[in-house]
Automatic annotation (TrEMBL), chain A:
<keyword id="KW-0732">Signal</keyword>
<dbReference type="InterPro" id="IPR026045">
    <property type="entry name" value="Ferric-bd"/>
</dbReference>
<feature type="signal peptide">
    <location>
        <begin position="1"/>
        <end position="21"/>
    </location>
</feature>
<dbReference type="Pfam" id="PF13343">
    <property type="entry name" value="SBP_bac_6"/>
</dbReference>
<comment type="similarity">
    <text>Belongs to the bacterial solute-binding protein 1 family.</text>
</comment>
<protein>
    <submittedName>
        <fullName>Extracellular solute-binding protein</fullName>
    </submittedName>
</protein>
Automatic annotation (TrEMBL), chain B:
<feature type="domain" description="ABC transmembrane type-1">
    <location>
        <begin position="51"/>
        <end position="258"/>
    </location>
</feature>
<feature type="transmembrane region" description="Helical">
    <location>
        <begin position="57"/>
        <end position="77"/>
    </location>
</feature>
<keyword id="KW-0812">Transmembrane</keyword>
<dbReference type="Pfam" id="PF00528">
    <property type="entry name" value="BPD_transp_1"/>
</dbReference>
<feature type="transmembrane region" description="Helical">
    <location>
        <begin position="409"/>
        <end position="433"/>
    </location>
</feature>
<feature type="domain" description="ABC transmembrane type-1">
    <location>
        <begin position="328"/>
        <end position="534"/>
    </location>
</feature>
<keyword id="KW-0472">Membrane</keyword>
<feature type="transmembrane region" description="Helical">
    <location>
        <begin position="12"/>
        <end position="33"/>
    </location>
</feature>
<feature type="transmembrane region" description="Helical">
    <location>
        <begin position="516"/>
        <end position="534"/>
    </location>
</feature>
């Protein structure tokens, strides 16, 4: 039993070790840590404030809610707009009134009530096979046309990126038309929705399908990955609905948790993330479109060309989010 | 055994049992909370498909497992199969393979870009998926095949033992009465092995109902993935709890069936006389039978392990790094702590039950064992509620005392995982140690008490040394199960904490298992240890081994403790979920 006692003490030491937090900002992030670490390193260099990123694919809102006033989270970074709305809906965020943020981030990319701020913009693009389709002048609506039967790949319909796309469709076309569109799209899928956005491009390269639905920055990211470069090289990136309302965009963003222990430093970090330096880094490292007007996208992203973005206010997406989820379940999109 | 047991001892037993039951109670409470029509929405749309998928999957896995396991069990038990002794233990090895790892490997082989379909295309001259038909591995059928490949050994193990222990005299009688070999198999051997096979089926079905990783990887929506999505996607804890209760109903039904089947089996075995049964000659079927067993072993273990090794070697540089050591260490200390705690709890519960004259004092050990029925996803929901409540209670108390609270010391740390593992795996420790304890004759206790020893010194001086082997085996088993447990670790780990299982699953879901192969191999190798032990304990009991015919009753203390390793009595040990 001596041994198990020893193990017990070692374990308790470990628990104690993990729960004693150093003086630093704790960031709950839906985005992978490596995407933001270079930017945070710069922040630490400038201010001396250390940061710790804890990444979770799902459930951050649920965790904040459960942790309540005992939460250690100083800032939440999301990969998607609907996650920001979830935080607001569950009453988990504090308002941030900052002139710096207001001047750096355009009004349509932050909430009216100062609940959240967008950091980057990305399009929900359509990737087409270079070999079999070429560059496309296409609308999202076309994806339901019979000519694309068995040719389309996408990740789960219930992924926030796709829910937002469906929500924008409802906002523009109404529920009935969106349902018909979803049914048509489902009928055109080459396989049951699965995998992540990159896996869809990979499937195009492999010849399983001809069109993949995916976010724009993955195209840049794949270009830089030795293993995935060949996937990206097999496709063109297309910006749908250029002749009409413009391409659907989504945002990544940030919000201050209601119970953030280090509120002032967290606001400082928020302001830093909207600054030229950080926005430049987002553009270069993540291949996203910066929100700050005078910061240019990276050379690779710029090479994809200009495009017209859907000007639908982001609040409209929020209004239709629940309806989109419901429609996706009703047409059994993932089944 | 009758000792004037202080009341507080039996109280301790009930308190421990209650603590281990809190997740189940919390879950049932949560399920009654209002959920803002989320559940109604699910019921109207996708829930029927989720339930149907779960049921179809269970049925398909059971049928495939039977198809694999029953012939194999009969061949290695009763026929002159070439390599019979080898297959007897080798066909248990797939139990060590996590289902999602096998799933990944077969997807790599059989998916559209994989080598198999490339070969088919080159034969047919096809250029697109529309040109030819090939079964889709990422489907319900594919998931069923993958799960069957790693779960069939449960049926194989129980079936093999049952076939081996069948009474010689009965079989001889049937032959004397003029029944052919074939007739005596269908009319006698198979019906007699049925309770054991049924118990195996219940286990396989239970593991299937609880599987999260494989179906999630194949994008087959079942009840377990629905619990995850509803909790973290819809953010509705109440609806997720309602879904969990549906799973629990299914699991408890299966446990009941398993118990029922095993009860009959026990009765049967008591009246049977075992003996050396002459092996049936397979004649010209010898080599086809050998081929069947070999193919099964290749498909379920050798091929996946070989590919894992290949990945691990090719990506050794990328995976042999400080992260790997950190994750291994996390897995190790968490599993070691869980094992130690489970064994301590088991000892406390069982000792109270043993020395107390009151029947009611044996309840806590029974109650505490029910936690193993909770699939990891479901367990996570049940664990967080009580722990969060406890954290807030502690912090409120600290505030009231005017001190700074300690924060989320339970729900926000590895303590949550530790608690979950104790709830899940206490049953393994209890089952194992109880079996060893039963073998200690009550006369020992009486002697010790007569010599003036109190209950505590009797425990430390008499029982503990004799239970040593059983305790070690229980430690090991819990350790291994904790190493493999996936969904509970995935959901309960403190943010940023990774162990080997979560690390491997992360790589599987990112389609990059190559880089996590090293960690997967560690999980498989560690998982092999109990199988080796298990097999040794069965070999010692096998009718054709020299030390056979040991009576099942309260055997003398001198009986080698090795032969009653608890591994043999707890086939309920859950696999990764």
């Amino acid at each position: 039993m001596k041994l198990s006692k020893g193990i017990l003490f070692a374990g308790l030491a470990c628990i104690a070790g993990t729960s004693v937090a150093a003086e630093q900002l704790t960031i709950y992030s839906y985005r992978q840590a490596f995407l933001i670490e270079p930017i945070l390193a710069e922040f630490t260099k400038e201010t001396g404030i250390k940061t710790q990123v804890v990444f979770a694919k799902d459930g951050i809102a649920e965790r904040l809610q459960r942790e309540g006033r005992l939460s250690k989270a100083d800032l939440v970074l999301t990969s998607d707009f609907s996650k920001l709305m979830e935080l607001v809906d569950k009453n988990l965020v504090a308002k941030v009134d900052s002139p710096v943020l207001e001047s750096n981030i355009p009004a349509q990319l932050r909430s009216e009530g100062d609940d959240w701020y967008a950091l980057t913009v990305r399009t929900r693009s359509l990737y087409s096979s270079k070999e079999r389709l070429g560059k496309l002048d296409i609308d999202y609506e076309d994806l339901a046309k019979p000519e694309y039967k068995g040719k389309i790949c996408t990740r789960s319909g219930k992924h926030p990126y796709n829910i937002s796309l469906v929500a924008s469709m409802i906002a523009h076309k109404g529920e009935a038309e969106t349902r018909t569109w979803l049914e048509g799209l489902k009928a055109n899928l080459a396989r049951v929705p699965q995998g992540n956005d990159r896996a869809q491009v990979k499937a195009v390269k492999e010849g399983l399908c001809d069109i993949a639905i995916g976010n724009s920055y993955y195209f840049g990211a794949m270009m830089q990955d030795p293993e995935q470069k060949s996937w990206a090289e097999a496709v063109y990136i297309n910006f749908p609905n250029q002749k009409n309302r413009g391409t659907h965009i989504n945002v990544s963003g940030m919000a201050l948790p209601k119970h953030a222990p280090n509120r002032d430093q967290a606001v400082k970090l928020m302001e830093f993330l909207s600054s030229d330096k950080a926005q430049q880094a987002y553009a270069e490292v993540n291949m996203e479109y910066p929100v700050k007007a005078d910061v240019k996208p990276s050379a690779i992203v710029a090479s994809w060309g200009e495009f017209k973005a859907d000007s639908l206010p982001i609040g409209k997406l929020a209004e239709n989010h629940a309806a989109a989820v419901k429609l996706l379940d009703e047409v059994k999109f993932d089944l | 055994m009758v000792v004037g047991l202080p009341k507080r001892w039996s109280l301790v037993g009930f308190v421990i049992a209650f603590l281990l039951l809190t997740p189940l109670l919390a879950l049932l409470t949560l399920a009654t909370l209002p959920d803002g029509e989320v559940f109604a929405h699910l019921t109207n749309t996708v829930l029927p498909s989720y339930i149907a998928n779960t049921a179809k999957l269970m049925l398909a896995v059971v049928l495939l497992s039977l198809l694999f396991a029953v012939p194999a069990a009969w061949l290695v038990a009763r026929c002159d199969l070439p390599g019979r002794r080898f297959f007897q233990w080798a066909l248990l090895l797939p139990l060590a393979m996590p289902g999602y790892v096998v799933a990944y490997i077969y997807t790599d082989l059989l998916d559209y870009p994989g080598p198999v379909q490339r070969f088919v295309r080159s034969l047919l001259g096809a250029t697109s998926p529309a040109d030819y038909w090939f079964p889709d591995i990422r489907s319900l059928g594919g998931a069923a095949l993958m799960l069957a490949l790693v779960l069939f050994p449960y049926i194989f193990l129980l079936g093999r033992t049952a076939f081996m222990e069948q009474s010689l005299s009965l079989l001889q009688a049937s032959r004397i009465m003029g029944a052919s070999e074939r007739q005596s198999f269908w009319r006698l051997s198979l019906p007699m092995a049925r309770p054991a096979i049924a118990a195996g089926v219940a286990l396989v079905a239970m593991e299937t109902a609880a599987d999260f990783a494989t179906v999630s990887y194949f994008a087959v929506p079942t009840l377990t993935t629905a619990v995850y999505d509803t909790w973290l996607g819809y953010g509705s804890l109440a609806s997720a709890s309602k879904l969990s209760v549906i799973i629990l109903l299914a699991v408890f039904l299966l446990i009941y069936l398993e118990r029922f089947a095993r009860r009959k089996q026990e009765l049967f075995q008591r009246q049977a006389l075992t003996g050396q049964i002459p092996l049936l000659s397979l004649g010209r079927w010898r080599w086809p039978a050998f081929g069947f067993c070999l193919l099964l072993l290749l498909a379920s273990f050798i091929l996946p392990l070989g590919i894992l090794l290949d990945y691990a070697i090719r990506y050794f540089g990328a995976s042999w790094n400080s992260e790997f050591f950190q994750f291994s260490w996390n897995s190790f200390y968490l599993s070691a702590l869980s094992a130690a705690l489970c064994v301590l709890l088991a000892l406390a519960l069982l000792y109270v039950g043993r020395i107390s004259p009151r029947r009611i004092d044996s309840w806590p050990a029974r109650l505490a064992s029910s936690g193993y029925a909770l699939p990891g996803t479901v367990l996570a929901i049940g664990v967080l509620g009580p722990l969060t409540w406890l954290d807030f209670a502690i912090n409120d108390l600290a505030d009231w005392l005017g001190r700074e609270g300690p924060g989320l010391i339970f729900s926000g740390s590895v303590a949550a995982l530790l608690f979950a593992f104790c709830v899940r795996f206490a049953a393994i420790a209890i089952g194992g140690i109880e079996n060893s304890w039963r073998r200690l004759s009550p006369s020992l206790d009486m002697a010790a008490l007569t010599m003036g020893k109190g209950p505590l010194s009797m425990f430390f001086l008499v029982h503990l040394p004799l239970l040593r082997t059983g305790i070690l085996a229980a430690l090991l088993l819990v350790f291994i199960e904790a190493m493999k447990e996936l969904p509970a670790a995935l959901l309960l780990r403190p943010i940023g904490f990774e162990n080997l299982a979560t690390h491997v699953f992360q790589y599987v879901s990112d389609e990059r298992l190559e880089q996590g192969a090293l960690a997967a191999i560690v999980i498989v190798l560690v998982g092999l240890v109990p199988l080796i032990l298990l097999n040794r304990s069965l070999e010692l009991k096998a009718p054709d081994s020299p030390v056979s015919d040991s009576p099942v009753s309260d055997s003398p203390v001198s009986d080698s403790p090795v032969s009653d390793s608890p591994v043999s009595v707890n086939p309920m040990s859950p696999k990764e979920r």
